[in-house]
Amino acid sequence: MKSPVHRCRDVEHGRGQNRAGSNCLQPEQRIPISKDVITSSSSSAMWFIRDTCGIVCAIITWLLVFYAEFVVLFVMLVPSKNLTYSIVNGTLFNTLAFLALASHLRAMCTDPGAVPKGNATKEYIESLQLKPGQVVYKCPKCCSIKPDRAHHCSVCKRCIRKMDHHCPWVNNCVGENNQKYFVLFTMYIALISLHSLAMVVFHFLYCFEDDWTKCSSFSPPATVILLILLCFEGLLFLIFTSVMFGTQVHSICTDETGIEQLKKEERRWAKKTKWMNMRAVFGHQFSLLWLSPFSTPDHGKAETYQYVV
């Protein structure tokens, strides 16, 4: 295994000297730097990735939710003779669907934790006032100072802090700042999928006992086709989003991102309890706001990151 002296590509050191062919002459050291230094100046602005595949997947996601909404309301609930059943299930389903789409929008339009692009300039590195022997890693792809636990996304074309993976369904990376919204999105999609499946089963049983022409405002063949398609959609996304939700919760509890697990990266950060890891993602105080996509979690402004080779 090569020593840090040999692993010196795209590294700046704090001696204030630039030797041709070698920028790394000192052993590897971590440099604690405030989060404010590596937070993108546009973090409060609208974030949107112009990726054709991601945009198409995001549109398909919304269309599938709208299809489920249409079948649940106009095929099953509106024609129902039980007003209480229709109101209760309609309110529950629409609330969960609204929260799912809101979570999807927040996950898609929230900066996942992008490191400022092109900040690895000589002037900027000198402004950090590095001590002799201290080094910083520069991403050769986006020319940014790369903190520990950050990875470069080829789709977003940025280095993302605590990047878990890039999800085309939300057309964004899942990272430090939007992981909460992605977890909520998978949870609410799983819940509306389960709810719609339960209503489909109940509606089939009801229609078998009654006249098919009276249990729906559509023709019997059209009703069956619509219900079967919804059943297939609900079952597929229930399995998919449940697995994603489980893997995300496990990733949060172990404080190890999907990329870190895949690459089996050496753990260089302090180990915390599962409860502390959950609070770091969803917010410092447990409340119903954890379940709200409209609540922005406080990830800790005093948090520091490590710049390493």
Break the fold down into its secondary structure elements and pairings.
Blueprint: E1 11-13, E2 31-34, H1 35-38, H2 52-77, H3 83-109, H4 122-127, E3 135-137, E4 150-153, E5 158-161, E6 165-167, E7 172-174, H5 179-209, H6 220-254, H7 258-263, H8 274-282, E8 304-307
Antiparallel strand pairs: 1-3, 2-8, 4-5, 6-7
Helix pairs in contact: 2-3, 2-6, 3-5, 5-6, 6-8
EC number: 2.3.1.225
Protein name: Palmitoyltransferase
Catalytic activity: L-cysteinyl-[protein] + hexadecanoyl-CoA = S-hexadecanoyl-L-cysteinyl-[protein] + CoA
Give the biggest beta sheet.
Answer: 2 strands, antiparallel
Radius of gyration over C-alpha positions, nearest whole angstrom: 25 Å
Low-confidence stretches: 1-34, 301-309
> What share of residues are in beta strands?
5-15%
Tell me, briefly, the overall form.
elongated
Distance between the termini: 14 Å
Q: Which structural class do you get from the secondary structure elements?
A: mainly alpha
Essential attributes:
single chain; 309 residues; mainly alpha; two-stranded antiparallel sheet; 8 strands; 9% strand; disordered C terminus; acyltransferase
Structural notes for this entry:
This protein starts with 10 loop residues before the first strand and ends with a strand. It has helices at 35-38, 52-77, 83-109, 122-127, 179-209, 220-254, 258-263, 274-282; strands spanning 11-13, 31-34, 135-137, 150-153, 158-161, 165-167, 172-174, 304-307. A two-stranded antiparallel ribbon has the order 1-3. By secondary structure, it is mostly helical. The longest helix is centred in the last third of the chain and has 35 residues, at 220-254. It is 47% helix and 9% strand. The chain has a domain at 52-113 and 166-291. The radius of gyration is 25 Å and the shape is elongated. The protein contains 8 helices and 8 strands.
